[in-house]
Specification:
Rossmann fold; 4-stranded antiparallel beta sheet; 6-stranded mixed beta sheet; alpha/beta
């Protein structure tokens, strides 16, 4: 479906060597999660879990329900039925506490273009309730990590797209969340920037932060420890990339996606 990155990202810290232990604590535990809008069921009783430090892919065509599911998991949309525990907190009973324990990067980067790099960091640090000293400390670490220390006074709108995305990723980690949600974080960037972004994802997961990522680049889904593919509001298949391909009798995730979302064309 999409051209692969110029170079594949480094291997996942889990899939490359030892798989993530089944005994690792659960960072996300969704059971029968459902959302209806009137007579329309956008998410239909989905059940899955994600373990601490895992890179988990959430795939589906437009309208499949993945964005609605993510909004329930981050406490922005109340489920109609079912339950979800995220970072140890029930999203139905304490959505505010969930939002304090997670990071979120939307497709629109969640940054203010008319503010400088440093002003954005200070703003979000204050929203997260960090002290001035902690904001300054975390700012140094995160900007050094992505090579933007010398650009802290630059307006965000003047940064290239790839740098804006890396900055948004870093801002989402400012308060050291337990779970990081990424909604199509590499859309529209070049292959090299995509590789750099996945290096950041792997570094984050290796440090113990759970990452749930939606992507429309199916080659990127190969880099996840496990994934689900949603179709018409339900989870059609789940497992590691290898398990998903074996279950459907295909050799690539592109074929798996086609098989599930366009069955007539796949036969």
């Amino acid at each position: 479906m999409n051209a692969p990155p110029d170079k594949a990202p480094p291997a996942s810290p889990h899939t490359a060597s030892a798989p993530l232990a089944d005994s690792a604590p659960l960072a996300i535990d969704a059971r029968g999660l459902t959302r209806r809008f009137g007579d329309f069921t956008a998410v239909n009783a989905i059940t899955f879990d994600v373990r601490q430090g895992e890179v988990f892919g959430f795939l589906g065509a437009n309208g499949a329900g993945k964005t609605t599911a993510m909004r329930m998991l981050i406490g922005l949309l109340e489920p109609t039925e079912g339950s979800a525990i995220v970072a140890g907190v029930d999203v139905v009973h304490d959505a505010d506490a969930v939002r304090r324990r997670i990071g979120y990067m939307s497709q629109r980067f969640s940054l203010y273009d008319d503010l400088t790099v440093q002003e954005n960091i200070r703003l979000f640090g204050a929203i997260y309730g960090l002290s001035d000293a902690r904001i300054a400390e975390r700012s140094e670490v995160l900007l050094a990590r992505i090579g933007l220390l010398e650009s802290r006074k630059e307006l965000v709108r003047r940064l290239p797209l790839g740098w804006r995305q890396q900055l948004a990723f870093s801002v989402a980690l400012l308060h050291e969340p337990q779970v990081l949600f990424l909604d199509e974080p590499t859309g529209g960037v070049d292959p090299i920037t995509r590789r750099v972004f996945w290096e950041l994802i792997y570094e984050t997961a290796a440090a113990g932060t759970t990452v749930l990522v939606t992507t429309h680049y199916l080659d990127e889904a190969e880099y996840c420890d496990r994934l689900t593919i949603m179709v018409d509001g339900s989870i059609a298949v789940a497992g590691s990339p290898g398990e998903v391909k074996r279950a459907l009798g295909v050799t690539t995730l592109d074929e798996a996606f086609l098989h599930l979302t366009r069955p007539a064309a796949a036969t």
